[in-house]
Design goal:
Oligomer: heterodimer
CATH topology of chain B: Arc Repressor Mutant, subunit A
Number of strands of chain B: 3
Shape of chain A: elongated
Radius of gyration of chain B: 15 Å
Distance between the termini of chain A: 66 Å
Strand content of chain B: 5-15%
Number of strands of chain A: 22
Helix content of chain B: 40-55%
Largest sheet of chain A: 11 strands, mixed
CATH superfamily of chain B: Winged helix-like DNA-binding domain superfamily/Winged helix DNA-binding domain
Helix content of chain A: 40-55%
Number of domains of chain A: 4
Largest interface: A-B, 31 and 24 residues
Order of helices and strands of chain B: HEHHEEH
CATH architecture of chain B: Orthogonal Bundle
Strand content of chain A: 15-25%
CATH class of chain B: Mainly Alpha
Distance between the termini of chain B: 32 Å
Chain lengths: ~900, ~110
């Protein structure tokens, strides 16, 4: 088969080059010998025969070259030769190669790690069938003057019913968050994650149970039968994969629930829950507030336009009501792809990080361009020689590009490794459930991205030297030795200025984040967090819907905890400082603003709560045991409350919600805000009420969302308290497992985890940028010293001191860097404005930050200039001059 | 009488090489001399053209080569036609016949 023969020769030419060459050599030699033999036979003398044979052959080397040029796979072969030559060149310059590969590894690695986040969060399809047909609903608010913003919309019971019954183009479902609940299996009580979802929720996700069925509409009605669907993991681990589980009752939240289904193995749900129960939404209870999160799936044959029109029509009554209450504001609803909706809150931060990573890449490119440029200039004589020997411009260009490509590939591979490690580290930093995705893989798309970035980098940093190489002039290059290239220096200085400018922006940005974090961490806590230990437990349990059972639990568990040796005080509250707190409506019942309705954070607390936390009492009194269910309803408010509703006047004695009298005012504590403006920590209005006066209705709702905190203050160390607290809790209710134990200080750290991560990430990027810039300055100055050794020698021979020469030489790096600093400051003025929404307690134009940035850079610039310039001191003028 | 320095038409050299091997295996010099002989000395193939063409025919799978002993007990590389080579020779001969007939017709036309 000719095709086979061709393939065989192709491979032979490619891989058995040596044998093919040897064969050719032998053949040509034998041909010459045969020619000589022939001439001898014709009667020529020995010498004559050989001369004539050589003439007829026409040069053995030329013949071989002609064969080579027409060989199969020749072009590929010459590429390979060039690659080999390139690899040898890189191997022979280990310091250059190492610098480039390390630079690439770090910058490409940073990009790989960040991009894999972008990929997982924004690009990768959700793990459901036809994810593009899944959505959530956003509200867009606008005035006549234009849009005033849009946000994901949550529904109350009425809106849910309108949506469910009037939008036939969509399969709609709602859920109400995920909370920890207690599951009793056999004699063991376990803490599991429960997601409450409406009927058709699993239909929207296109998940078919592995066993049994999805919830029916009947089961989703208010007061419908209590049922449950288990995750595969829970079914497997807790129920021993019992196939007869269907139809059995499990004890969940203190009540029997009939198992109707088991999800398939590996099924992913947005809530990642262990067990699902029907939401049974209504207009009562939690249905009175915006507590349901919708997800939708477009039915076959329908379009999103139709769906949006139906949604707006379905909610028109509500929109009209809203527009009446908010004069001049128009509201419209629209569907947003589920993925976009789920990742919306993380999107700006992730994109900002990607931008920072892009900056790093630019800095790396500038550095590498400088390095390759110098290397190129050093090789001018090599280039000239090759040109003189007849190499075409293209061949020389190709050689350089191949070397760049090789560097890019090695650097890219190293970068993938660094990126993998970086990503692992990053994921370890993130708190659990921080990302709305199950995993952040290094998949094919990430690999393609990394490869593209590496190759693009090589093109960017290779372009300049290649352009310079094109201008190599044969005569001058052959004549002179290493020529100082003024154009090259100017170019390198502008590159340096550029990278320093970008570094300034990154440093200033991370500086602002650090300042913001310091501000948040050093906010006056308003209580004494030292020596306080916290236990949380879920009271989303039928046994605690009755207030008297709830009070009994609190009294007995608190009494038991007070018995723990070393414990000074104990109490229960919902919730604690640093936590996200439930908010509720409040009505002012006296004074000028009587009847005013507003919102306040709401905390229930047992007597001893304030004392345990050591919150300062500003006026009035704390709660006592006398504040019982049947006595006068009382409340304690904080300073922010008094400021907001009473203009800072003493609130004690004022009435709220008709029958509640304020009996005390306490200092503000920092909480994770959700009323004022989204901020990780701030103090806003809080109303404290005695746990004994909370009604059943409120208990049921609030305990489905939040878990109360048991707090103890100890005089001794807090280590080992967790076990004793669990034991004390078990004395009051042996079936109540704590869901977690926290030192009070850790709660602050948990709340600020996100800020810490951003600081760590952007800080790492800024440090990387600084390092790369330092390398850039160092390389420029070191190269100047090396190139100008002779000039320096002459200067020193003519009487310049070492110091004078160092200033002379160092000036090039310093002036370029300082220009970069100025440029960077100007750039920051514009660029940092986007950070307004992520920094707290510090302005965008923060003098302290900017001064710190400039000082840091000045120090780095000086160091990176002085160290290479020190070599000047070791230059011996006499010797350098003799060398010429 | 100097041999014609005729530049061979593209593909003609391949045809001549195949034809020279039709009667049996030959080494490079043998092929070169055979072509000289069968073209009545019109074409003298220099090694610089012969070897690249020869190697190409082998890469195409029309010839195969092996090392053997020559008349003077010199080792030489011999080439012989493969099955594919014979087919190629046939096809090319036909094609060449058509072309030369057509060219002759064209030149005779007045």
């Amino acid at each position: 088969m000719p095709v086979l023969a061709k393939a065989r020769s192709f491979l032979r030419n490619l891989f058995l080059t040596e044998r093919v060459e040897q064969d050719l050599e032998l053949e040509v030699r034998s041909h010459l010998q045969l020619l000589i033999d022939e001439n001898l036979r014709a009667g020529m003398s020995g010498q004559e025969a050989e001369r004539s044979a050589r003439m007829e052959l026409g040069g053995a080397e030329q013949v071989k070259q002609q064969v080579r040029e027409r060989r199969l796979g020749e072009s590929l072969h010459s590429w390979i030769t060039d690659f080999r030559f390139g690899a040898r060149q890189l191997y022979k310059n280990p310091s250059f190669t190492l610098t480039v590969v390390l630079t690439l590894a770090l910058s490409v690695g940073a990009n790989t790690a960040i991009f894999s986040m972008v990929n997982a969060l924004l690009l990768k399809s959700l793990p459901y069938a036809h994810p593009e047909r899944m959505g959530t609903i956003y509200a867009r608010y606008s005035r006549a003057t234009g849009s005033v913003g849009s946000e994901p919309t949550a529904l109350d019971g009425e809106k849910w019913e309108l949506l469910r019954d009037n939008v036939p183009t969509l399969i709609c479902a709602v859920s109400s968050g995920t909370s920890g609940v207690n599951l009793k299996a056999g004699s063991r009580v376990q803490y599991v994650r429960n997601s409450r979802v409406s009927a058709h929720y699993l239909d929207v996700l296109a998940l078919q149970p592995f066993l049994g069925r999805n919830f029916s509409e009947q089961e989703d009605r208010p007061h419908g039968p209590k049922t449950a669907i288990l995750s595969f993991g829970l079914w497997h681990n807790v129920f021993g994969a019992d196939p007869a589980i269907l139809g059995q009752a499990i004890l969940l939240k203190g009540e029997p629930h009939i198992v109707v289904g088991v999800l398939p193995e590996g099924a992913i749900t947005p809530s990642n829950a262990d067990v699902f129960t029907p939401l049974q939404p209504s207009r009562e209870g939690e249905g009175q507030g915006m507590n349901f999160d919708p997800i939708t799936r477009l039915r076959d044959g329908a379009s999103w336009q139709q769906a949006d029109a139906q949604i707006n029509r379905a909610w028109s009554i509500r929109s009209q009501r809203f527009e009446k209450e908010n004069q001049g504001v128009h509201v419209a609803y629209y569907s947003v792809a589920l993925q976009k909706g789920q990742t919306e809150s993380l999107r700006p931060q992730v994109l900002a990080l990607m931008l920072a990573a892009g900056f790093i890449l630019l800095i790396a490119c500038a550095n590498l361009a400088g390095l390759t440029l110098v290397r190129m200039l050093r090789r001018t004589s090599e280039v000239a020689t090759r040109l003189a020997l007849g190499a075409s411009n293209w061949q020389i260009q190709r050689q350089f590009w191949i070397e760049n490509l090789l560097l890019a590939l090695i650097g890219g591979a190293a970068g993938t490794g660094v990126g993998f490690l970086g990503l692992r580290g990053l994921l370890l930093l993130l708190p659990e459930d921080f990302l709305p995705v199950a995993s952040v893989p290094l998949d094919a798309r990430v690999m393609i991205f990394t490869l593209t970035v590496s190759v693009l980098t090589s093109v960017l940093f290779g372009m300049l030297p290649a352009l310079v190489a094109r201008r190599v002039d044969l005569r001058s290059s052959m004549a002179g030795r290493a020529v100082t290239h003024a154009g090259g220096l100017r170019l390198r200085q502008s590159l340096l200025a550029g990278e320093v400018a970008v570094t300034v922006v990154l440093l200033a940005g991370s500086g602002l984040l650090i300042r913001s974090l310091i501000h948040l961490e050093t906010l006056p806590p308003g209580f004494n967090p030292n020596g306080v230990m916290v236990a949380k437990a879920s009271l989303d349990d039928a046994g605690y819907h009755d207030p008297s059972a709830f009070h009994k639990l609190l009294n007995e568990s608190i009494a038991a905890m007070r018995q723990i040796p070393g414990v000074v005080n104990a109490a229960v509250g919902l919730s604690l400082p640093y936590e996200n707190i439930v908010n509720d409506g409040v009505i002012l019942s006296d004074g000028k603003e009587a009847g005013r309705q507003d919102i306040t954070d709401l905390v229930y607390a047992t007597p001893g709560y304030f004392e345990t936390l050591q919150m300062p009492l500003l006026s009035g009194r704390f709660f006592t045991d006398a504040d019982g269910p049947d006595s006068q309803r009382v409340a304690v408010v904080n300073q922010a409350f008094a400021r907001k509703f009473y203009g800072g006047a003493n609130p004690v004695g004022r009435y709220l919600n008709k029958d509640t009298v304020i009996v005390g005012e306490v200092a503000d504590v920092q909480i994770s805000s959700n009323i004022e403006r989204p901020a990780p920590l701030l103090s806003e209005q809080i109303m404290y009420v005695p746990a004994a006066q909370v009604d059943s209705h409120f208990l049921v709702i609030v305990h489905t969302w939040y878990q109360p905190d048991w707090i103890v203050r100890t005089a001794g160390p807090i280590e080992g308290l967790a076990g004793e607290m669990q034991a004390a809790l078990a004395k009051a209710d042996p079936n109540l497992p704590a869901s977690g134990f926290y030192a009070m200080q850790d709660l602050q750290a948990r709340t600020l985890a996100t800020q810490r991560i951003y600081v760590a990430l952007l800080g790492a990027m800024a440090a990387l940028a600084l390092l790369l810039s330092a390398v850039g300055i160092f390389a420029l100055v070191a190269n100047m010293v090396a190139q100008r050794t002779r000039e320096i020698g002459i200067r020193m021979a003519l009487g310049s001191t070492v110091g004078q020469v160092m200033v002379q030489i160092g000036r090039s790096g310093v002036s370029a860097s300082l220009l970069g600093v100025v440029l960077g400051l100007a750039l920051s003025a514009g660029a940092l404005r986007v950070m307004t929404s992520v920094i707290y307690g510090v302005g965008v134009y923060d003098v302290t930050t900017l001064v710190a940035v400039v000082l840091t850079l000045a120090a780095v610039i000086l160091l990176a200039t002085i160290i290479p310039a020190l070599r000047i001191a070791s230059i011996d003028p006499a010797r350098t001059l003799r060398e010429e | 009488m100097s041999p014609e320095p005729t530049t061979l038409l593209q593909g003609t050299l391949d045809l001549l090489i195949l034809k020279s091997l039709a009667t049996g295996e030959l080494h490079g010099l043998g092929i070169s001399r055979r072509i000289e002989q069968i073209t009545g000395g019109t074409f003298v193939v220099k090694p610089g053209s012969l070897f690249p063409a020869l190697h190409r025919t082998e890469e195409e799978g029309w010839t195969s080569s092996f090392w053997g002993g020559s008349e003077n007990n010199r080792r030489a590389k011999y080439y012989r036609l493969t099955k594919a080579g014979k087919k190629q020779l046939e096809a090319e001969s036909k094609r060449w016949g058509r072309i030369s007939w057509a060219i002759a017709q064209a030149l005779e036309a007045s």
